[in-house]
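=== RUN LOG ===
request id: a7f3
mode: sequence -> structure
chains: 1
length: 51
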Amino acid sequence: MEIGTVGARFPHYPRATFAAVDVTGHNLQIDQPELFNALMWNRLDRVTAES
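=== RESULT ===
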């Protein structure tokens, strides 16, 4: 899995992030709920810290 920022590619979204997850389909929240929850909590923690 790779996690990174996409600010350089999408300047209108400077705080955007992406996660490339191997061995999953379009339903990450169903296929890998623990990973999905970890990624979502990480994002929510960062958004809260920035406000």
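=== NOTES ===
The longest helix spans residues 33-50.
The CA atoms of residues 16 and 34 lie 21 Å apart.
=== END ===
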